[in-house]
Structure formats: structure tokens, C-alpha cells
Backbone:
């Protein structure tokens, strides 16, 4: 007799932190694996969707760009793909485990595809973004804001 073991896979958030850039990112083919730098953070992708919650150290509303990266063996290079970009509105300051931060409360999609879930209103906490990763191996979250705030990214693959 065969048995099937069922398990639940809790989709816990993981945290990444970076300093926002001050200009829109430019991404090109590269022979090196994408890496985090000023203005962005890179983490492993998900086969389906990624859920994001975004926080900033200032009330200045950043613009975010979400890139997916795939390796193409025939040309020995990683290829960037802009999955989506969006402008944001921020909550009032809140104190939580991240310190005194401002949460992305609302987003306006500029390009690409993302499902935007706001809080109770577009200025209250509780919202998140759901982004189709299109099978990308790596996801890069970039932002630009005039004040170069510290950005906290909470991400979970689905």
C-alpha cells in the first residue's frame, strides 16, 4: 500500500534592505550574476508570484521598478526583464520591528503587470503587491527617490 504525505509550506516573508537610488535604473545584459547594489536588492525568484511589502525610512514616496533576470546559456549572459514599475503613496510614520518607517500604502502601476492590494484606504497600512515573476531566476527590486531613503523589502514566494 502506498502512502502520501501532505505538508504545508508556510510562505514566510524574508527581509532585504537597501539604500534607494536617485535616478531610474538602467539594466543591460550581463555575464555576471545580478547582485544587490545601491538602489536595488536582488534575491531568488519564484516560479509563480512574489508578494511584496515595502517600507521606507522617509515619507518621500519612491518609484519602484521590479526586474526579473534569467540566464541564457547560448549567449552566456543574464537577461533583465522589467516586470513592472509603479509610483507610491506612503502611510504616516509607524513604529514597528523595522523602527520608525513609512509603509507603501498605495501604488499606481506605470508599466507591466502587478496586482495592487491597498490598505483600508490608499493612505493606511496593510496593503501589498502581488507580482507575476514569469519564471525568472532572480528578482531585483529597484527604487528611486530624491532623499535616498533606506528601503525595507519583505518578500514571499508563492
Residues:
Amino acid at each position: 500500500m502506498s502512502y502520501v504525505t501532505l505538508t504545508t509550506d508556510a510562505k514566510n516573508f524574508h527581509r532585504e534592505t537597501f539604500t534607494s537610488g536617485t535616478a531610474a535604473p538602467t539594466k543591460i545584459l550581463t555575464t555576471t550574476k545580478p547582485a544587490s547594489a545601491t538602489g536595488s536588492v536582488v534575491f531568488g525568484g519564484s516560479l509563480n508570484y512574489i508578494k511584496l511589502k515595502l517600507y521606507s525610512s522617509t515619507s518621500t514616496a519612491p518609484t519602484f521598478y521590479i526586474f526579473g533576470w534569467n540566464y541564457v546559456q547560448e549567449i552566456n549572459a543574464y537577461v533583465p526583464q522589467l516586470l513592472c514599475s509603479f509610483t507610491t503613496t506612503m502611510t504616516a510614520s509607524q513604529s514597528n520591528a523595522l523602527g520608525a518607517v513609512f509603509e507603501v500604502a498605495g501604488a499606481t502601476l506605470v508599466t507591466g503587470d502587478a496586482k495592487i492590494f491597498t490598505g483600508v484606504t490608499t493612505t493606511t497600512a496593510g496593503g501589498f503587491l502581488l507580482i507575476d515573476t514569469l519564471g525568472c531566476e532572480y528578482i531585483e527590486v529597484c527604487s528611486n527617490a530624491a532623499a535616498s531613503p533606506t528601503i525595507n523589502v519583505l518578500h514571499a514566494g508563492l
